[in-house]
Amino acid sequence: MANFVLIPGAGGAAWYWHRIVPLLEAAGHGVIAVDLPGDDEKAGLSVYTDRVVAAIGKRKNLVLVAQSLGGFTAPLVCGRTRVDMLVFVNAMIPIPGETAGDWWDHTGSVAARTAAARRGGYSETFDLASYFLHDVPAEIVREGEAQNRPEADIIFGEACRFETWPDVPIHAIVGRDDRFFPLDFQERVVRERLDARVDVLPGGHLIALSNPRGLAEQLLDYL
């Protein structure tokens, strides 16, 4: 039995994973969806890491799964506890000492997003509907309105201080239809920063909401 530890992206709501949790549990595994204080201006990466480590407790056989901004918390958790596998999902993948605020320029994220919008014929100006919710079922969008909270600025100025990635299997799952971090952009970043395996699934940036079964099956396949 594995224990899946699920780190959310900006805003920090564990609710993001609510469609995945029962699928992994039904397969006989433990699941911890961690809620993070994304809107707390006093809570930076160290607080996020403490929250994840506390949620893990003494559990073993850990598969750490990080969505989007959660990629900046993942290596710090790996430095605090033994994980058996690390999985990024449409994630911001840092290099040692990088801040999440600098990541955008360092990777060329905005330019890649704009180019993809021009090719795809949708708005080049970011908005939730066009970039996050375009493939999420309407009923899930309505349910999620109560879960939305802004990400505090503190997280974007704090350096992600780690030395190296753990010597465990590392995978990257990329949503084929992600408009926020387009497919070709993510493939390049994963290649440059991790030299890891990339698995492409149907779905946008919030793939755990739009394609939960596909994502759950891919996570289980890694086992």
Annotation keywords:
223 residues; alpha/beta; Rossmann fold; six-stranded parallel sheet; 11 helices; 6 strands
Overview of this protein structure:
The chain has a 6-stranded parallel beta sheet, sandwiched between helices. With 223 residues, the protein is of the alpha/beta class. It starts with a strand and ends with a helix. The longest helix has 12 residues, at 45-56. The chain has helices at 21-26, 45-56, 74-78, 100-107, 109-120, 128-131, 138-144, 154-157, 183-193, 207-210, 212-222, and strands at 3-7, 30-33, 62-67, 85-89, 170-175, 197-201. The protein has 11 helices and 6 strands. The mean pLDDT is 97. The chain has a single domain, classed as Alpha/Beta hydrolase fold, catalytic domain (Rossmann fold, 3-Layer(aba) Sandwich).
Please render the helix and strand layout as text.
Blueprint: E1 3-7, H1 21-26, E2 30-33, H2 45-56, E3 62-67, H3 74-78, E4 85-89, H4 100-107, H5 109-120, H6 128-131, H7 138-144, H8 154-157, E5 170-175, H9 183-193, E6 197-201, H10 207-210, H11 212-222
Parallel strand pairs: 1-2, 1-3, 3-4, 4-5, 5-6
Total strand count, please?
6
- Supply the number of structural domains: 1
**CATH domain class:** Alpha Beta
- Record the strand order, biggest sheet: 2-1-3-4-5-6
Number of helices: 11
**Major beta-sheet overview:** 6 strands, parallel
Mean pLDDT: 97
CATH fold description: Rossmann fold
Q: Radius of gyration in whole Å, from Cα?
A: 16 Å
Which stretches are poorly predicted, pLDDT < 50 over at least 5 residues?
Answer: none
Proportion in β-strands = 5-15%
Task: Report the principal-axis shape.
Answer: globular
